From TrEMBL:
UniProt-recorded name of the protein: Uncharacterized protein
Cellular localisation: Nucleus
Listed GO CC annotations: mediator complex
Main location group: nucleus
Keyword entries, A-Z: Nucleus, Transcription, Transcription regulation
An annotated GO BP: regulation of transcription by RNA polymerase II
Length: 247
């Protein structure tokens, strides 16, 4: 390259050998850009749902639905429904159709008829579960974004392929964690509190008798998968006795 530049310089005297416009064209080519790995958003969403369904088995049924609450393809999905017959129905809203990015979660009784992603259950027990689930969603989203940011910083000096969108992939991890965690509520009305040893306890504000409503969510992805797959590895807590660090 140096010899070619010198030879070329002899022929550009009449054009101004020191002209930056001439010499800029002779700069060494930039390093090859790192290859960007891209995968359709709806494919990522479908993979997450399939993985979680494979972990939880038949105890919890997962479905992708559109805005009219009809079962649909991944590219049209705006909601993920989790249904455990006679126990709980949960709805996770997505940021946009086909994107694995959760923005809201709400729980209902399977017997309720007025069920939609932006509503509330008429039963106190499921409103309380929805409140806990909202905290869990915030925790999973924050953890996933932090992990994505850390990975992006690590990849700035790496020649390995990087995801096309760190934010999108952080949503994927948050959604998978949330779905696994929601799947631990299949034993909502049968798993006793691991502190009091009781199934029912009076709610501090309403005095209604409620089952243990808290399932720990500050767990690693591996621990979440184990809890979702094996009911005997789950812990349940009444809210008034749960350790503060779990909330």
């Amino acid at each position: 390259w140096a010899m070619a530049a010198a030879a070329f310089g002899k022929h550009i005297q009449g054009f101004g050998a020191n002209n930056p416009l001439v010499w800029n064209s002779l700069k060494q080519p930039a390093k090859r850009q790192r290859r960007v790995v891209s995968e359709p958003a709806d494919a990522l969403l479908a993979e997450v749902v399939q993985r979680v369904q494979g972990v939880v088995g038949g105890g919890m049924k997962l479905q992708l639905r559109d805005g009219s609450e009809k079962v649909c393809s991944p590219g049209e999905a705006t909601e993920v429904w989790l249904t455990c017959e006679d126990v709980i129905t949960s709805i996770v809203s997505l940021s946009e159709p086909g994107h694995a990015d959760p923005v809201r979660v709400v729980a209902f009784a399977p017997s309720e008829t007025d069920v939609h992603a932006w509503g509330f259950s008429c039963y106190l027990v499921f409103r309380r579960v929805s409140a806990v689930a909202t905290r869990a969603l915030a925790y999973f989203s924050t953890r996933s974004r932090a992990a994505a940011a850390s990975a992006a910083c690590a990849n700035t000096t790496s020649e390995t392929p990087v995801p096309a969108s760190g934010a999108r992939h952080s949503g994927v991890h948050a959604l998978e964690d949330l779905l696994l965690w929601m799947s631990t509520y299949t034993d909502l009305f049968s798993n006793k509190c691991c502190i009091t040893g009781t199934l029912l306890a009076a709610d501090l504000t309403s005095q209604a008798l409620l089952p243990p409503l808290l399932r720990p969510y500050k767990l690693s992805p591996e621990e979440l998968r184990e809890a979702a797959k094996y009911p005997n590895k789950r812990r349940a807590y009444h809210l008034h006795v749960a350790p503060y660090t779990m909330l």
